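Batch manifest, entry 17 of 40.
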Amino acid sequence: MIFRTASNGAPHRILNAHTRGFMYLQGRILALALCLIAAQTTQAAAPPIPPPPEVEARSYLLEDFDSGRIIVDHNMDERIEPASLTKLMTAYIVYSEIQDGRIKLSDMVTISKKAWRTGGSKMFIEVNSKVSIENLLKGMIIQSGNDASIALAEYAAGSEDAFASLMNQYAQRLGMLHSHFVNATGLPDPDHYTTAHDLGILARALIHDYPDHYTWYSQHKFRYNGIEQYNRNKLLWRDPSVDGLKTGHTESAGYCLVASAKQGDMRLISVVLGTKSEDARANESRKLLNYGFRFYETHKLYAAGQTVTSPEIWKGEIKSIPLGLKKDLYVTIPHQQYQNLKASMNITAPIIAPVQKDEKLGDMKVALDGDTVAERPLYALKNVSEGSLSTRLIDEVKLMFK
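Output type: structure tokens
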């Protein structure tokens, strides 16, 4: 804060040094007081956060894509029937097969009788016809075609049963510990289940791991075999920030929606399961997304590989070693609270060479008002070899008195 004296044409007086010094001191005290008042006012001005909205759904959650923080949740670990949200996992596996070079978007798939005669929502592919992987993916994502889902599963794994085994392996790998799949479509089965929490994990992985294919989830319509069908995600029409992901519905599951929206640099994911109608799943999802964007913000604190701290290292070729994180660190916090974040570090001591890159040498904790918002291990960012014989001997003596 800069203070300037006003020039208003008032008569000037020559002040002696004592008077000038006293007035200067008064001015400094006043300036300091004003700064303190301004700081307190700024801190007090942080907007209050109301309770999360009432959401009419069996289970739901709202989480930040980058930080993974769950902002709102209700029954998020309750076992539920995923209906066509299952197709998010089907797509994830097909994307993985494409990335690994085992199949290509241009591959032509011969449609089996099983795929063709499957009930429920359809892409309307014909038995024994040949359809590209790309069209099948669009038919599954945009039109929610059960026929397309089975055709993809059979091509990727030989049979739908074998593909279901893959689905469960991928679920375990992703950390979806409360999910079990028996088909690629989401048709009801007592042994086919997941949770809102697990679906949030899957949605984050899908967007992060396969961003090039994510754009299909925002496509409003798709025409195949002369039949044009519209994406069932009504939020794509109602909210320009929404760009995915998938709807689901059966009589027993109710109306479900996994949605994602981005405003500025912040992306949120909502999972709403077991609502009463198409409009309800859209409206309840929008409530959650609006709440998150209105009252929270996400910050990138450190990049992967960035030096966070450089503690002393003993008996080494250098005197300090850079420590950092393996992954970018984001935090999601209430609006206008960034300046109140506090980071603390617990470093392994003493650190003695040699040290290998990626060796864990401590932990970092980020807190807000005493509550931990992030905790991450700290790793060596480079190899450090032993120093010379004299360096090692000197440091050995110093350590004896440390």
